[in-house]
């Protein structure tokens, strides 16, 4: 397997992991915000701050993961366009025959 394909596969796994982590942080942050707003204990402020931090980290992670996916798609399209010849005629692939 070429080095380029290995790095591409690793990036897909990392991006998927970022999306899963961001979803977990968003859900946990929303839960803490809800629990902190309905709780009347002494730790209400700490729960609200923790929920806000988790929610913010979840949003930031999700934004970076989406930006990474969009950037990789743009670079893939850009590299495919560069491989086409200058005259606009696509190369013929006879390997399937």
- Report Rg: 22 Å
For the sheet with most strands, the description reads:
none
Shape type = rod-shaped
| Class inferred from helices and paired strands | mainly alpha
Q: Report mean pLDDT, rounded to a whole number.
A: 78
Strand content: under 5%
Low-pLDDT parts are: none
Q: What is the domain total for the residues?
A: 1
Helix fraction, binned, reads over 70%
Number of helices, where a helix is a run of at least 4 consecutive DSSP H or I residues: 2
> N- to C-terminal separation?
24 Å
Succession of helices and strands: HH
Q: Count the E strands.
A: 0
Write structural notes for this entry.
This protein is mainly alpha-helical. The protein has one domain. Helix content is 78%, strand content 0%. It is built from two helices and no strands. It is rod-shaped and about 70 Å long. The mean pLDDT is 78.
